[in-house]
Amino acid sequence: MKFGVTAALLxxxxxxxxxxxxxxxxxxxxxxGLRVEHxxxxxxxxxARNAAAYLTLVNDGDKVERLVAVATPAARRAELHxxxxxxxxxxxxxxxxxxxxxxxxxxxxxxGLHIMLTGLDRRLEKGxxxxxxxxxxxxxxxxxxxxxxxxxxxxxxxxxxxxxxxPAAAGSHMN
Length: 175
Known about the structure:
The protein is mainly β. Helix content is 5%, strand content 46%. The two termini are 19 Å apart.
């Protein structure tokens, strides 16, 4: 079955379809062979109405999975984006899907793939959480809580630091 639900309708899916929470971390989610880990967002400052959220997609299954939708009740829109450089100018571009090959993970991080949140209904305050629902082409839906980090944070709430450069094979994961 193809995932035909738009991001705006993603939060209207019954909770029985979504699988939330995994052992040990409030921000991780699991559905079948898929996991979402280290979900976080940057705090907003001033009157900013836009923000970015990041996470790691892990595919422990045996088939390619494609992230195709993301939603949050805290923003008017949530879209999958990447950062590209064209003619020396850095720009964000929307992507339709992010592929996660079996046995691999894809990191959404500053400077690369990310979730762009526009039309926030409130400021994102450091220490708060942001509900995210991610939907896959296979029909899997995962609910997670992204922890809001400081505006320039490069660390996850578990204290681990990560290389926030785009994944080396990021181009092969976008469609």
